[in-house]
Specification:
The structure holds two protein chains of two kinds. Chain A is mainly α. Chain A has helices at 2-15, 18-25, 27-50, 77-100, 107-126, 130-148, 155-186, 191-197, 205-222, 231-234, 240-249, 254-261, 263-268, 270-293, 297-318, 324-351, 367-381, 387-402, 404-429, 444-466, 478-500, 506-510, 514-524, 529-549, 556-575, and strands spanning 56-64, 69-75. The longest helix of chain A has 32 residues, at 155-186. Chain A starts with a helix and ends with a helix. By secondary structure, chain B is mainly α. Chain B contains 21 helices and two strands. Classes of the chains: A mainly alpha, B mainly alpha.
């Protein structure tokens, strides 16, 4: 069984170099080779899940001899469950890509990067120590950046890719320092050894707090939490399957996974848990608010991802279930968000537009896509008995027992969630079509993954209930169900009232309410963090760089003078016995 | 005596290169290839000999040789670090000399070029393995003189490269003089020119000892581009021919850092330490550590900020080299075994990545000299392989896995954190922030060279001219960097003392 834990990430990585090679011979062959490789990965994932008996770690070669850091895989309930989930989803999305990317240039690059991503993501999940996790953590970031910039002829795509790289890298350096502090203090980064050392001498309270904060910053960068969220909405410039796989279902969850994995460390200090909760709740509300006003179909989904990831962080911070609620919501969100993106991608291929104001009335002409998007939105709003209902209401129920404020905020955010979900649904699929000609339904390779995900979203909770990898004992308070049903009803009501009126345009809905218009503008700009980062660059880094270049006069005399001056300074300092 | 044999092979090869240059009548067209293959062949023989020696060498401590019968009779110290750096020098040297076959195919002075290149590499071997100040200084001067000659070695011997060479002579010459003064002070205190005598330097006369050490470090630090002495580096690197910039950045600058390491090693008495984090410090080293760390911080900021305002890839790479010297000096300032291992591993990674980057920084498809970003823009769309090379080299330079630089930077930061003091932790954070800062200009290279479309309309673009002879050496170096990144233990296994 354990060898499957190695194979699951080795198979996609090893198949990467074959993609361009096969691509030279046959384009079709290359595409189906990628599908085959991901199908094999998914098969290994399911095999791993089915044959799982008990948790274990296996080490191989010593990777970093100085600290005896091995390459190791960790097989436990969480990692196996997530590996199975990721490999299943990546198979569906690679299959979908065959249809979506038809006729595009540079498909060898696309499939190589996707497979490399899948391998690195699975490696990240299966990693047995922090160094290995960080190694794969960076590789998924690189794959993500280059896939966002896939259509590099578009300046926005290039910019978005590089922006994603820089912003997530900022989080990464915090994680880097955290990992190295652990390594320096404990001489190991093995999870089990870290947990057993918490609280004792070299890893006391202050160190744990520092490491926890740095880990949290790293997780925030990858999982696009405020204020490091700015890259995710822009990342929607990439191809839609990439958005579905990387920026909705898998990579952005890596931050959540890190916090779940490190839960014993976070739960050691209540300060850390409070911080995690605050970060989560903030992102949840801001993400949802931005999603309500956004006009780009994919950006709505991106902001919604930020919001949903916020809910996961908050549920970890509430901290009663050792992160199990977050794991459940991670899978649930991954399924319905991937479904939403795949359906949105189908809309985009058919119509060529991403602006919800330009679309409308697609319900009849794109029946399967409509069903897919409808189920995604129902699940996202938490309508029973879809998977989103179970995950969200479980979170609210557990929060009610320990942190009532968080519980109420999460429940309230469901109103916003319902509003943006149904707003998108109504604008795209209902009303009158504003397109010049009737769009056609997408090809079968794209519909099959959508329909598979519809089934997963509907019955996924049964599977999650049945599996014994991570025993979720879901208990939902009746009060919670009442609250969430009320939230959904009020959300749908608001959207229905707004769109049944003749003035369906958002601008006209606002009327002349100046504060509302200002708020909308502020939200559309993504909370103004972009401006702040631009300010940091243009007002601090660039002036400093220009100043520093004055030292480079290029005159020999000046250079010699500097050297002499430094020698004289040292003689002077020595003579004065300063040093 | 393998070391001396290697040096003798190399000096002979340098003479043969010069002699073979006179056969220009017999093989006019093939001259660069004939002379070049002699040079490359000699380097390969030396590399193989080095590996053979490493294979049969089982001792764990360092070996001192004091030959009396050889031409190069002096004290040499050979240990893991020395072998590692010599290995780096030969690998970079082989890549550069293969590259130069094609690069010099239009040039007239092939013999002197290869001869100087080999002399430079041999002197590096001498400097790296020198065990006393005499051999250290002599080889240091030989290295500098070869470097002066190579910098001025431009095809049309342009004004800029002559000026750069002159600047280099003045500053590096002044540096050598300073170092010589420091060495004479050390001799006056300890009565010995062995490097190991530095260990007793601070015990007798602390003030003069500290002064002498700082003067020596400043003197050799000119080559290592420490903060106030870094000003020559961008001018020289950007004016020198591409293979020469590659050798200078890949080996010569690192040799400067390695000399600092050789001076620090006896001070910290680390060679006997078994635990990698043991800091066996003498009383007065803390001031030197502080000075080095502060200079390192200034150096890396100057380098990384300087990179932002440059528009020429070679100049960007030069500033990035300054920054990376800063990281190395920061790691050295911990005076720990881990820091030394980190520096030596960084020398390997920086050597192969940066020289590989320099080798292709002028490949704009038209000629080999123009590395303005404007003229390189859109290369990736003309030739996918070149685009991928630029992108992967940039990623390697910012320390992303799966490239070797990641592990080197990891070890550097780890050495600083493991020094377990608040001061060094702050230095570690600054180093990491600087690595982040370097993203700014490397991503600009990725953006403009690898991803962006050419500035000019496609029909006006000159026909692409990417010959294999110029592409294979940098590709080889990237492959090595990737190999180091994925299997770091293959090399790091040889670095534990």
């Amino acid at each position: 069984m354990i060898y499957a834990a190695w194979l699951i990430w080795a198979v996609p990585i090893i198949s990467v170099p074959f993609i361009p090679l096969i691509g030279m011979v046959s384009q079709r062959g290359r595409n189906w080779f990628a599908v085959l490789a991901s199908a094999l990965t998914a098969f290994i994932g399911f095999y791993l899940a089915a044959s799982f008996s008990s948790g274990m770690t296996e080490s191989s070669i010593i990777w970093l001899p100085i600290f005896k850091v091995p390459v190791q895989v960790l097989v436990d309930g969480t990692s196996v469950l997530l590996a199975a989930f990721i490999s299943f989803l990546s198979f569906l999305i690679v299959l979908y890509s065959v249809g979506y990317m038809k006729g595009e240039k540079g498909q060898s690059r696309y499939y190589s990067l996707i497979l490399l991503f899948v391998g690195a993501m699975l490696g990240l999940v299966m990693a047995g120590n922090l160094i290995q996790l960080y190694f794969f953590w960076e590789i998924v970031g690189i794959c993500s950046a280059f896939l966002i910039a896939f259509w590099y002829d578009k300046p926005e795509a290039r910019r978005a890719g590089l922006k994603a790289f820089v912003v997530t890298r900022f989080g990464d350096i915090a994680l880097f320092i955290a990992v190295l502090i652990v390594l320096a203090n404990l001489k190991t980064t093995n999870y089990a050894s870290i947990f057993s050392a918490i609280g004792s001498k070299p890893f006391g309270t202050n160190t744990v707090l520092l490491v926890g904060i740095l880990l949290l910053i790293g997780a925030m960068g990858k999982s696009a939490q405020v204020p490091l969220h700015v890259w995710l909405p822009d990342a929607m410039e990439g191809p839609t399957p990439v958005s579905a796989l990387i920026h909705a279902a898998t990579m952005v969850n890596a931050g959540v996974y890190l916090v779940i994995r490190m839960f014993p460390l976070f739960s050691y200090s209540s300060t850390l848990l409070v911080l995690v909760t605050i970060v989560g709740l903030t992102s949840m509300i801001f993400g949802a608010a931005c999603a309500v006003v956004s006009e780009d179909l994919k950006r709505i989904l991106a902001y919604s991802t930020i919001s949903q990831l916020g809910i996961m962080f908050a549920s970890i911070g509430v901290g009663t279930t050792l992160g199990a609620t977050a794991t459940y919501h991670l899978i649930s969100q991954g399924l319905f968000k991937a479904l939403a993106f795949l359906a949105a991608g189908s809309v985009i291929t058919a119509t060529g537009s991403r602006n919800v104001e330009e679309l409308g009335g697609l319900r009849k002409s794109m029946k399967y896509t409509y069903i897919g998007f409808l189920f995604a939105m129902l699940a996202m709003s938490g309508v029973p008995p879809l998977i989103g209902f179970w995950s969200k209401d479980w979170i609210v129920s557990t929060a009610l027992t320990s942190n009532v404020v968080a519980a109420i905020l999460i429940a309230l955010s469901s109103v916003l969630t319902t509003i943006y979900s149904f707003r998108a649904l109504f604008k795209v699929f209902y009303g009158k079509s504003k397109l010049p000609n009737e769009p056609k339904e997408s090809s079968t390779v794209m519909i099959v993954p959508i329909m598979t995900l519809v089934v997963s979203v509907t019955v996924g909770w049964l599977v999650l209930d049945y599996q014994r990898l991570v025993p979720f004992n879901i208990t939902i308070d009746p009060l919670t169900i009442g609250m969430s049903l009320a939230a959904i009803a009020s959300g749908i009501g608001i959207v229905y009232v707004a769109f049944s009126s003749r003035t369906a345009q958002t601008q006209s809905l606002m009327g002349r309410n100046a504060p509302l218009i200002a708020l909308r503008k502020y939200l559309l700009e993504g909370l103004g963090f972009d401006k702040f980062y631009g300010f940091l660059y243009s007002r601090i880094v660039l002036p400093l760089a220009k100043t520093s270049s004055y030292l480079e006069s290029g005159w020999l005399g000046v250079n010699m003078g500097l050297m002499l001056a430094s020698v004289l300074l040292i003689i002077f300092l020595v003579a004065l016995k300063v040093i | 005596m393998w070391l001396l044999t290697v040096m003798e092979i190399e000096f002979t090869a340098a003479m043969i290169c010069l002699a073979a240059d006179y056969g220009r009548k017999c093989y006019a067209k093939w001259r660069p290839y004939v002379v070049g293959s002699i040079a490359t062949g000699s380097l390969i023989i030396s590399l193989v000999y080095l590996l053979y020696y490493r294979w049969t060498y089982n001792e764990t401590s360092s070996v001192s040789l004091r030959p009396t019968t050889s031409t190069f009779a002096s004290l040499y110290i050979i240990n893991e670090y020395t072998i590692f750096v010599i290995f780096t020098a030969f690998v970079v040297g082989i890549a550069v000399s293969i590259y130069s076959w094609k690069y010099l195919s239009q040039d007239d002075n092939v013999g002197p070029f290869f001869s100087l290149l080999i002399l430079l590499l041999t002197s590096v071997v001498g400097v790296v393995s020198a065990g006393d100040f005499l051999s250290l200084f002599l080889f240091w001067e030989a290295m500098s003189i070869s470097a002066y000659g190579l910098v001025a070695f431009y095809k049309e011997s342009s004004q800029i490269s002559l000026e750069a060479s002159l600047k280099y002579i003045f500053l590096a010459g002044a540096g050598s003089l300073l170092a010589l003064y420091g060495i004479s002070l050390v001799y006056s205190i300890t009565g010995s020119i062995d490097l190991s005598s530095l260990g007793s330097l601070l015990e007798t006369n602390t003030e003069v000892g500290v002064f002498a050490l700082i003067i020596i470090m400043l003197g050799f630090g000119v080559e290592a581009a420490i903060f106030p002495l870094h000003t020559w580096l961008p001018d020289v690197y950007s004016a020198a021919p591409l293979p020469v910039s590659a050798v200078l950045s890949g080996i010569v600058t690192e040799t400067g850092v390695f000399v600092l390491l050789k001076i620090i090693q006896p001070l910290s008495a680390v060679t006997t330490a078994t635990n990698v984090n043991t800091l066996l410090k003498l009383s007065s080293t803390e001031e030197i550590q502080g000075i080095l760390a502060v200079l390192a911080i200034l150096t890396m900021f100057i380098g990384n900020l300087g990179g932002y305002v440059q528009t020429n890839v070679k100049r960007i790479l030069s500033f990035s080299s300054i920054a990376q010297m800063g990281y190395m000096i920061a790691a050295l300032s911990t005076f720990s075994v881990l820091g030394i291992v980190a520096v030596v591993f960084m020398i390997w990674n920086h050597g192969i990545s940066k020289s590989g980057f320099f080798l292709m920084s002028g490949l704009n498809g038209k000629n080999y000299e123009d590395s303005e970003l404007d003229n390189l823009q859109g290369l990736g769309q003309k030739n996918k392989v070149v685009g991928i090379m630029f992108a992967s080299n940039s990623l390697a330079m910012v320390g992303s896995p799966p490239f070797g630089m990641f592990w080197a930077e990891l070890l550097i930061v780890e050495a600083l954190i493991a020094a377990s003091s608040t001061f060094f932790f702050a230095v570690a954070v600054i180093v990491v922030l600087n690595i982040f800062l370097s993203l700014g200009y490397y991503l600009r290279i990725i953006n403009r060279v690898a991803l962006n479309a050419p500035d000019r309309p496609q029909e006006n673009m000159p026909k692409s001219n990417f010959s294999l002879g110029l592409l294979i050496p940098p590709l080889l170096l990237i492959a090595l960097s990737l190999l180091t990144g994925i299997f770091p233990y293959l090399l790091l296994d040889h670095l534990i003392l």
